[in-house]
Design brief:
EC number: 3.5.-.-
GO molecular function: hydrolase activity
Oligomer: single chain
Number of helices: 20
Protein name: Amidohydrolase
Radius of gyration: 23 Å
Keywords: Hydrolase
Domain Amidohydrolase: 59-543
Structural class: alpha/beta
Shape: globular
């Protein structure tokens, strides 16, 4: 498998010497300089040796003590939705229901030309009222205009009457509730109607905004998780085309549609997708009570929603493997993850375990794991594409997970240490706009997981957010700054670098240079995170911080 290149050819990239900083490279843990040539890393080493290269390069960059690392890969992004949240109504900061309604009212007044008002990010579990806005409240706040307002997890939404009027027979669809958030088929229908109102120009502006923002955070690659229940084909192909034609992070596309034949597989490839994976829903989300559980929710008398059973999973994985495509699924609840594991194992019994392992099929989110499913991930060679910011946002004994599941079950979620001990490859992402693009914050969230036994080292978390994303697309030769690797890197202003010592726990630190391990910024909660000064993809600069 190979990723799509979304930049000018690497051989047109300038030859650059970076010197006078710290270069995070396993090839030389004390490196202070690096040469980039032809879009690849050509050399890393010491400041003294760098003099030999200075006269033969197109540019010399004085790092002035800055840190150079591999660029981050965000392994789960919804790019257009991210851009719309950056340029539109974002309710993540709303402190109360009244605050949210006031923001809706102000947004509607400011966007009189929009055919449909689009917002994002509300989370009623954080509001003192403990409930979402009613349709009547939204009708009043918008003056009766169409409004689509998904919950932060994007698995349910509140809407206005005017938007419902655009969807014939919506009241007959599963998941329709007269005055509660829409889920399931009803939610998908109103989302499609809302997104259909976005013009191609608005969409392109949103995509550019998202990719610019990603580049400004040191992200060199995003995995776009599209699909017929997420966006539409035009959105997906337009994003890949835009990323082909304009400088910025590379975009690797996944299209979440079931494959049952060679014809289906060809269609996925024709769209430009690397695999039929990403948000192919086995279930929903915990926040919306739609993740599929073995036992009922603590705050609801049901077990959520199952969208795929083991037989459907097996058929999809078998067809994808035979076609040379990556398969993958969105699975959060323990019952959904169990169905995915059972289905992949059934495919392995048909095709042989080596073929299944070689395909590197993916599971997105993978939150409610058990020791048995962790072992199965390792056995089947599944990639765990996970989002540590979920735990930072909703974990802990008083968080949303504990409300939905009870404290005991909530403490089992997102067991990153157990996954690493079992040898399961991790690829970190944000699921933006569900949680923001924030790579260093993601690394910190994994290292300081709210459940201490699930914490992993900063080094392991950093690897999962750099090299892990490349491994998840079948590339083992990228994501590190070693000679021959793609020149995807970021330059950072950071505080003192430290080396996290090997430990069965997480929090013992060492700055002993004898460790032979390249250092990383200290990410203690509350400390400032590194600031991105420059982002480079395949040797081409895609971001430079102003006035630096």
């Amino acid at each position: 498998m190979t990723e799509r290149e979304h930049l000018p050819p690497a051989d047109t990239a300038p030859t650059v010497l970076l010197r006078g900083g710290d270069v995070h490279s396993p090839a030389d843990p004390f490196a202070t300089a690096m040469v980039v040539e032809g879009g690849h890393v050509a050399w890393v080493g010491s400041e003294g040796a760098a003099d030999a290269f200075a006269s033969g390069v197109d540019e010399v960059v004085d790092l002035e003590g800055a840190l150079v690392t591999p660029a981050f890969t965000d392994a789960h992004v919804h790019t257009t939705a991210t851009g719309l949240s950056l340029t539109g109504l974002d309710l993540a900061a709303a402190r109360t229901l009244g605050d949210a309604l006031a923001r809706v009212r102000d947004f509607a007044a400011a966007r009189s030309a929009d055919r449909v008002l689009l917002g994002h990010g509300w989370d009623a579990t954080r509001w003192p009222e403990g409930r979402p806005p009613t349709r009547a409240e939204l009708d009043e706040a918008t003056g009766g205009r169409p409004l689509y307002l998904p919950r932060v997890d994007v698995h349910s939404a509140v809407v206005t009457t005017a938007l419902l009027d655009l969807v014939p027979d919506v009241t007959a669809l599963a998941g329709y509730h007269p005055d509660a958030p829409l889920t399931g088929a009803a939610h998908h229908a109103v989302r499609a109607a809302a997104h259909a109102a976005v013009t191609p120009a608005q969409r392109a502006d949103a995509q550019r905004a998202a990719l610019r923002h990603a580049a400004s955070l040191g992200i060199g690659t995003v995995h776009e998780c599209g699909g017929p229940e997420i966006s539409d084909e035009d959105d997906f192909t337009a994003l890949l085309k835009l990323a082909d034609e304009e400088p910025g992070p590379r975009v690797v596309g996944y299209w979440a549609e079931r494959v049952e034949s060679d014809k289906d597989a060809r269609r996925v490839r024709e769209l430009g997708a690397l695999g039929a994976a990403g948000d192919l829903f086995a279930d929903g989300s915990l926040g919306s009570h739609t993740a599929c559980l073995h036992e009922p929710y603590a705050d609801a008398d049901h077990r959520g929603s199952a969208h795929l059973d083991a037989a459907a999973v097996a058929a999809h994985v078998t067809a994808c493997t035979e076609a040379g495509l990556q398969a993958g699924f969105h699975a959060i609840g323990d019952a959904a993850i169990g169905a995915v594991v059972d289905g992949v194992r059934a495919a392995a019994e048909t095709l042989g375990l080596p073929r299944i392992r070689a395909a590197r099929h993916r599971v997105e989110h993978a939150e409610m794991l058990t020791p048995e499913t962790v072992a199965a991930f390792a056995e089947l060679g599944l990639i765990a594409s996970v989002q540590p910011a979920f735990d930072a946002a909703w974990g802990g004994d008083d968080g949303m997970y504990a409300q939905r599941l009870g404290v005991e079950r909530a403490r089992t979620l997102n067991p990153y240490a157990a996954l690493l001990r079992a040898g399961v490859p991790l690829a970190f992402g944000s699921d933006s706009p569900v949680t923001p693009l924030d790579p260093w914050g993601t690394v910190r969230a994994a290292a300081f997981h709210r459940t201490p036994e699930h914490r992993i080292s900063v080094r392991a978390a950093f690897t999962a957010h750099t090299r892990g994303g490349w491994r998840a697309i079948g590339r083992d030769d990228a994501g590190t700054l070693v000679p021959g690797a793609p020149a995807d890197y970021a330059v950072w202003r950071a505080d003192e670098l430290v080396v996290q010592a090997p430990d069965d726990r997480v929090a013992r630190w060492s700055t002993d240079p004898r460790s032979g391990t390249p250092g990383l910024p200290g990410l203690t909660p509350g400390a400032p995170l590194p600031v991105c000064l420059r982002t480079v993809v395949s040797g081409h600069t895609v971001f430079v911080r102003p006035n630096e």
